[in-house]
Amino acid sequence: MPVAIALADDSLIVREGVSRILGADARLRLVAACPDLPSLLEAIDRHTPDVVVTDIRMPPTNTDEGIRLASLLRERHPDIGVVVLSDFAEPEYVLALLRSGSHGRAYLLKERLHDGAQLVAAIETVAAGGSVMDAKVVEPLLRAKLPARESALLMLTVREREVLAEIAKGKSNAAIAESLVLTKRAVEKHINSIFLKLDLSSAGDVSKRVKAALLFLAETEAPPVA
User: Fold this and answer.
1) Any idea which architecture 141-220 has in CATH?
2) What is d(CA 1, CA 167) in angstroms, rounded to the nearest whole number?
3) Mean pLDDT over residues 139-153, rounded?
């Protein structure tokens, strides 16, 4: 069955261009193309798409509508994936996008999408519950904050890597404990050890979890573009 997609971008040219790319692939089905957040929310309620492809800034405020939408969908429609198409390479947007977990989320820079296949591949990955983050955004953040990330990851035990994988999915400590058949106290000990080894102890709680997730993604997933 084709992946149902709702598209949102306030630029008519971008909206029409992406619509053509999506419409040309039999694996995809475009159910709505919207110019702003209110019409996108209406389309989501009407069609319940598998994936939303959205600009990061659009009316009504032209600030961070795409990020706020992703957070809202995590609460109301957790099975709907989100592909954010952005003109902005600021890592802060990625951190905000991943605060509720990386599964079913993608952040792509429009300027680095060289062909339709890259976008289609990201949509399919997100529809399957995976994630795709543009290396141009993620790598500078990791280099700046976690220069010894590769050696630090090697220091993690097998169990700690399992816990880190669950953190990257956005799970709470209680959910991790249930998934890995551990006590909540044991999970807390593993997480504290992970943060210590990854040099994240001084960061805020949400920031620690997001940056740990970014480390996991940087190691396990190939970037969509070179």
Assistant:
1) 3-Layer(aba) Sandwich (3.40)
2) 31
3) 59
